[in-house]
Amino acid sequence: MTSQTNLEPLAKALAQFPIEHFDDEYETLGDHHRMAAQHFSAAAKHHQLAATADDDGDGQSHARHAYLAYRHQLNAVQYAEIAALNSETMEEELTEENFGI
Known about the structure:
76% helix
């Protein structure tokens, strides 16, 4: 089995998760959580593709997918942090009053 044959199902699965770039449309916490989830999912798919490429000895494809997985993970964490920091519930829990200060 060639590396291209091994990668086709994962590449097709990855294509089902189009990642849109950040713009002003994503203003709700839910939108940020969804974008984080999409990026985490894309990172996982690229990790699978990188592992398959490594197993097949395709160093160039491995490096490309490893890099893409890393970039998606960074974007996912950024969206998750935005959602957490903008959460009013979290802000309420972290007030001085709740800490008895």
